[in-house]
Structures are given as structure tokens and as C-alpha cells.
Amino acid sequence: MLDGGRPFFCSWSGGKDSCLALHRTMLEGGRPDVLLTMMVEDGSRSRSHGLPATLLGAQASRIGARLELRSASWSSYEEVFSGALRDLAANGVRDGVFGDIDLEEHRGWVESVCARAGMKAHEPLWKSPREKLLREFIDSGFSATIVAVKDGTLDQQFLGRRLDMRLVDDLVAADVDPSGERGEYHTVVTDGPIFSRPIRLLTGDSYLKGGYWFLDVDASEWPEGWGGGCHA
């Protein structure tokens, strides 16, 4: 359990799992200092979910945390992520919250990179039953939309659908892990109990990139004082 009196960062994808991990930590008294998101090389989109910096900024402003963006290729990902952790540690952050459920290799990786930066990794969702996590997310009042599907694994018709129990049933019927733990799909969260107010999502066309179909999305309004920008 994370000591609520210490600042922590959340490894933030903008999707349901990192959001629920953050929510559980906050229910235990934790208050997030930083949301850390990894972006593609040019900083235009988040590396896994394809979210623009403005939408991530809108999430952070509603949660009341500072957004930290870092740009990297897959080959430089660990180096850049580790550098971000060292910078956070130098500013007194000693704990990180992650949204992994049961991927042992990823848990081992985050524990390793955190330890090298003098930090401790926390996994609030670890080994929780997947259906329980989905029900908890939905019943808690969060709103999330599918913004990416893995090409050849899940049909494009799922893009833009809101996460509810009917969608969960349809994912099961499609023979897909309803939690999407291995990247079958990705979501963006636009409302919930940790948000000061909802985000109205603007949607555009879908596009294929890196083996995924992405829905082009953004927030209808930029965060107040948003200046944009990413750190290399």
C-alpha cells in the first residue's frame, strides 16, 4: 500500500487500466503528483493509445495532477522512461503506480526500472479477476471509449464504442480478452469520480498504423493555460 502522504506518479496511458489503478490508489488516500505518458518520436500522439497531448492534458487538469510527456521510439523507450523516473526522483517522487493486471514480464520490467531510479512500483490491479475490474470500473461511474483495436484481432466496428457490460459481452463473443490486457484494444477515459468534470470527445476518421486501427480523437476544449510540448 502506498503511503498517502508521499507524492507519486502514475504511468498514464489515458485508458481504463491506468485510470482504475489511480482511482484505487486515491481511494486509499493517495494524491497523484504527476501523470507520466510516453509519446511517439514527434510528440504528436501517445505511443500506445494514439492520444494527442491536448486530450491527455484535459485528463490531467480534471484529475488535478501535472502531466509529464516524454517522446521516444520503441528502441529508446526504456532509456527515455528511465530518464523521466530519475528526474521525478530528483524532485522527491519515490513511488510509481501502474495498471498491469497479470503480465509478469511487464511487472518485472517496471519494478526493475523503478528500482534503478530509487523508486518503488505499485500495482493496485495485480491479479484481480478481470471481470471484477471491468465491473468496478463501470459501476464506479467511469466513462471510456475504444480508440484503438488490433488489426486482425478485433473488428473496426468496435472503434468509438463506450465501455459497458454489453460491450464486454460482445468482446467475449468475439473471442477477445474483455480486458484487452495483451493490447487487443485500447480506451480513453473521459469522465469518472476522479474527474472534476467530463471531457467531451471529438472524433474523426480511423487510420491504420503499426498494426492497429486508431480512431482520431481529441478533447473539445484544451486545458486552461495549455502550452503543449514534449520532452525528448
Please give the domain count: 1
Please name the fourth-level CATH homologous superfamily. Answer: HUPs
Low-confidence stretches: 227-232
| Helix content range | 25-40%
Radius of gyration equals: 17 Å
State the end-to-end CA separation: 32 Å
Order of helices and strands: EHEHEHEHEHEHEEE
**What's the pLDDT, averaged over the residues?**
93
Strand order of the largest sheet: 3-2-1-4-5
Q: In percent terms, what proportion of residues is strand? A: 15-25%
CATH class: Alpha Beta
Question: What is the name of the CATH topology?
Answer: Rossmann fold
Outline, from the CA principal axes?
Answer: globular
Could you explain how this protein is built, in words?
It is built from six helices and nine strands, in the order βαβαβαβαβαβαβββ. The protein has helices at residues 16-27, 53-63, 77-90, 104-116, 130-139, 165-173, and strands at residues 8-11, 32-39, 66-71, 95-97, 120-122, 143-150, 185-191, 201-209, 212-219. 30% of the residues lie in helices and 24% in strands. The strands form two sheets. The protein has a five-stranded parallel beta sheet with strand order 3-2-1-4-5, with helices on both faces. The chain starts with 7 loop residues before the first strand and ends in a 13-residue tail after the last strand. The model is unreliable at 227-232 (pLDDT under 50). The longest helix is centred in the middle third of the chain and has 14 residues, at 77-90.
What are the main properties of this structure?
232 residues, 5-stranded parallel beta sheet, 9 strands, 30% helix, 24% strand
